Amino acid sequence: MKLIDCPFIGPRPAAEFVYGGAWRPMPDAEQCSDAEWGCYVFHRDSVPGTKRELWYHGPSGTWLVAERDTLTDRFLRTMTLGQAMAEEASHA
Amino acid sequence: MPLRLVKNAFDSRPGPRFFTQPERLKDSYDVVIIGGGGHGLACAYYLAKEHGITNVAVLEQGYIGGGNTGRNTTIVRSNYLTPEGVKFYDKSVQLFQDLANDFDLNIFYSQRGHFTLAHTDSALRTMRWRAEVNKHYGIESEVVDREDIAGACPELDLDCGGHLPVLGALYHAPGAVVRHDAVAWGYGRGADQRGVEIHQKTRVTGINVSGGRVTGVETDRGSIKTGTVISMVAGSTPRVTNMVGLTTPIVIHPLQACVTEPMKPWLDTIIVSASLHVYVSQSSRGELVMGASLDPAELHSTRSTLDFTEGLMDYLLDLFPFLGQARVMRQWAGMADMTPDFAPIMGTTPIEGFYLDAGWGTWGFKATPVSGMTMASTVANGRNHDLIEPFNLSRFERFALVGERGAASVGH
Ligand SMILES: Cc1cc2nc3c(=O)[nH]c(=O)nc-3n(C[C@H](O)[C@H](O)[C@H](O)COP(=O)(O)OP(=O)(O)OC[C@H]3O[C@@H](n4cnc5c(N)ncnc54)[C@H](O)[C@@H]3O)c2cc1C
After folding, report:
1. B247 vs A22, A39, A53: nearest CB
2. Which of B160, B241, B288, B392 has the fewest CB neighbours in a 10 Å radius?
3. Ordered mean pLDDT values, 10 residues apiece, chain A (92 residues)
4. pLDDT (average), residues B116-133
5. Cα(B365) to centroid of ligand 1, in Å?
6. Can you tell me the mean pLDDT for B172-178?
7. ipTM, interface predicted TM-score of the complex
8. CB contact (8 A) between residue A42 and residue B249
9. What is the C-alpha to C-alpha distance for residues B23 and B219, in angstroms, rounded to an integer?
10. Which residues of B339-352 are buried (b: 16+ CB within 10 A; e: fewer)?
11. How does pLDDT run across B190-208, given as a tens digit for each residue?
């Protein structure tokens, strides 16, 4: 059985998790143009590679961020939203 | 020993059956089509046949029809929800009906009638809406009740074992199944006979753009100069648009399907249930051809899963409890290029000379003829064909989506 490592309660069966889409920074809605906003709302980067994604663990009702290889379906890392945001801030 | 066999023994390769296999790529072409699926081959066919443009290369990384064209469940219908979609797919159904004559090839076009079951009031409401839009454009489409469904498919358990009983259905008489490979071969042969070059095992690895204009493509067999590139690569679209620095709303998800062992003919219609996430038809070989909705997360792979067959069979048995003993024979997947509004992305792009035919997701086989025809016209005339104008990539920044989800999500 495929397992996903929940950062809160450890490995759980993949079937308990729901995909929440790519985790992407939001542009400032007041500042950006319609085209930029349309790009944020609709456009995605679906070239295969390692992606940061939102996943939801149904039974415990928690959101988490996972790094997954979209060519092989391997989960490389999981982290809490807090950890992901802290990493994002330190990169910026 | 027959002479023909002896002759073959001295040939380095067998003679062409359907196509000539050109030895080498030319230095330049007027038009390069990336992807030798149904769409790419149809576009090449209409470029040559309708517009006299024959200096065309179709470049296919694998073998023709080996992508989603050879993996789909072959349903053809036009009972969509939006006026844009209905007009477009209706044109395709019309073209399909003449195709066997056009090709002089049997494409096993088999009109079956198509039932989309409604198990809830809200589903029934959407079907009334669809039926009205369809009828407005002259398409046979009507809401029918339980007795009508029972008459057409007596094997169906309308009560679904007490779980989500069927209330009615949208019935679409023109719904059909077609031999998918034959469609690719027919278009390929027709294009080949008119001078188009089809290069299999030729992968495009880059697209050259200079001053906002396409100037050529790079392949694993060398460079080609061209001012016009049409991307018709379905599940590989993001990789190709990435080559020219374009982003799109397309996300790739696997879509799986399977067939049972062959059985005596008993199902002569196509049955779809969006609420139960299942659709089924019986092929001319007797196999039940079945599918469901997409795999939930982005993935660039054609692997199969047990989750899919388990979930599908659970619902299939709600509809047809007597199939409990039937065995699944084969299972496979394709990579579906999904858009947020379940409508395609077609025509011109911000890069001059780069045309897109993508976003075919789970519904693009039925569009093969009309896509080929309208894309060929768009390239030949330098402006989007009227039927595809609403599907342009620019619709997302204009917030002018073509909401087709209600008619395309499981029904394909
Ligand atoms: C399981 C399943 C069931 C479906 N059921 C239905 C249905 O019932 N009805 C319906 O209408 N639609 C259905 N569809 C959708 C339909 O199959 C597709 O939308 C349609 O076949 C797309 O055709 P195409 O020619 O655009 O793409 P494809 O047939 O996928 O062709 C694209 C080609 O491009 C090639 N390629 C990619 N990248 C490159 C490159 N860099 N260089 C060279 N070549 C490249 C690929 O090898 C491929 O052969 C289904 C799809 C699946 C997966």
Report:
1. A39
2. B392
3. 93 95 90 91 96 96 97 96 90 73
4. 96
5. 7
6. 98
7. 0.94
8. yes
9. 15
10. bbbbbbbbbbbebe
11. 999 999 999 999 999 999 9
Angstrom distance (rounded) from CA A79 to CA A55: 10
| CB neighbour burial string for B251-264, b if at least 16 within 10 angstroms, e if fewer | bbbbbbbbbbeeee
Kindly give the distance from the C-alpha atom of residue B160 to the centroid of ligand 1, in angstroms, as a whole number. 33
CA atoms within 13 A on the CB side of B186: 23
Return d(Cα B157, Cα B166) in angstroms, integer. 9
> Of B236, B314, B397, which to mutate for an interface test with A (greatest number of A Cβ within 10 Å)?
B397
Q: Which helix (H) or strand (E) holds B380?
A: helix B368-381
* Mean pLDDT confidence for B215-222: 98
Tokens matching residue B263: 């059985």
Those residues whose C-beta lies under 8 Å from the C-beta of residue A1, and which sit 6 or more positions away, are A13, A14
Asked whether the beta carbons of residue A47 and residue B242 sit closer than 8 angstroms, the reply is yes
The structure tokens listed for B157 are 């358990």
E-strand ranges in B31-175 read 31-34, 56-59, 75-76, 110-111, 114-118, 142-144, 168-172
* CA dist., res. B9 & res. A30, Å (int): 73
Report pTM.
0.95
**For residue B261, what pLDDT is reported?**
97
Using CB atoms, which residue from A19, A43, A47 is nearest to B296?
A: A19
Of B239, B297, B307, the CB nearest to A19: B297
Q: How confident is the model at residue B13 (pLDDT cuts 50, 70, 90)?
A: low
Paired tokens of B162: 């007490």
Given a cut of 80, is residue B14 above it in pLDDT? no
Average pLDDT, chain B: 95
pLDDT at position B351 is: 98
Locate A42 and state its tokens: 């609709």
Residue B4 has pLDDT above 80, yes or no: no
Structure tokens, B279: 């659709």
